Amino acid sequence: MSMSGSRPLARRIIGVETEYGITCAPTTDGPPPMDADHAARELFDPVVQRSRSSNVFTRGGARLYLDVGSHPEFATAECDRLEDVLAQDRAGELVMADLAEQANARLAASGVPGRIHLLKNNRDAEGNGFGCHENYLVRRRGDFWNDARTLVPHLVTRQILVGAGHIAAGGETRPADDALSGYVFSQRADQMWDAVSSATTRARPLINTRDEPHADAERYRRMHVVVGDSNIAQGSTLLKVAAMDLLLDYLEHGGDLGDLALADPMRAIRDTCHDMTGGVLLERVDGRTITPLEMQTEHLGRLRDHIAQDIEVTALHTAALELWERGLEALRMQQPESVDTELDWAVKHRLLTRYCQRHDTDLTDPRVTRLALAYHDVSPGQGLRQRLESTGLLRRFVDDETCRRAVDTPPATTRARLRGAVVAKAEDLRRDVSVDWVGVRLDDGVGSPVTLSDPFRAVDERIDALLESMERSATDLPIGV
């Protein structure tokens, strides 16, 4: 399915990096049996045993590693289709869930009274933050950062659609009513401190300017979006990445968003987060004001005009635009139930509202906090996502089988296909290889590294030759080796 037009949407490499929260909860009375650092090491024990490293690439082309602060992290393979982004992101959940299941079996067998939980969220109990980052490959050109800065208003206000929902400390919010006083759009908004910067941990910018394209640096650069909630709902992830893909295409073909610049983006992102009506007034550079609803409506309108001119978009892009429209209308009419199977903040709003009504309580109840955490728990048998999807209370955009297949099968149309093939062959033949985003090398002391600088290239005779040589060398080994 495509919208009418004469030019297909330009191919773009997209990836998502997700840091997971981890905790080991006691299964008996008493304190937690291990802290987050030890729990993370226990989680990654089979990875280290197999690869002698806690930083590996998978058969599916993705990167699995322990990040700074004991956060398990999954970075999707390079994707140039929205279907692959959604499948790869869910594959990350499945990989983490499998590691948690193995770890908990080991703890039980050892008599350790604890259970590891992995949370796809953005805050721990102490208020420490961790992120979900997006990567978009763009053509290298001198005025790129001027365009990137014009995307700041979108990143500030998109949380009214793709925020994961959050119970704010101290109830600092201005809700439309008092049903869920203390509920806000985003877990991440209050953690951001700069609009555009080269720092990530210190300044926490919306967009990171560090120039690491993981591709031919003369042709490409990578736009690294640091702001963004970790999403459970596929609809939220779809809208998040599809909107940015379309906005980048709009800018690359002469579009302009500069007239919507905000006077104080960091104040605006907090004001947007804490006003559940979408109607808080944000000051623009030109002295006028605009609401988050109006900002997102304007962005959507410009994209629709852009597409109507000459662009063919995919069925999932069309679905994202339609969800964007309905999400704005839900806020405009204050009817979150119209998107409460598709957008995280609305799904969680429904769950918490019904629980509070049923038990005559509010968001300060520890049971409500546990329910909110359960929404983000990807540990087997602990989270709510599977039950919600199976009962139709959480909409799928990519089916389970496709997501399970993505664990071991990389996207077929990008460089990830080559990397995944090498990793799979090395694991099957028990050969040592060095792998990163832009190259592979057989660790035999003889072969040369193969550089893969084109992320759009899914076929390479050098990789074919490397795979054949690995196969030949395996058959040449003496019996028993």
UniProtKB/TrEMBL annotation:
InterPro entries: Pup_ligase (IPR022279), Pup_ligase/deamidase (IPR004347). GO terms for biological process: modification-dependent protein catabolic process; proteasomal protein catabolic process; protein pupylation. Its EC number is 6.3.1.19. This is Pup--protein ligase. One of its GO terms (molecular function) is ATP binding. Signal peptide: none annotated. It is an enzyme of class 6 (ligase). Keywords: ATP-binding, Ligase, Magnesium, Metal-binding, Nucleotide-binding, Ubl conjugation pathway. It comes from Actinomyces oris. The keyword Nucleotide-binding applies.
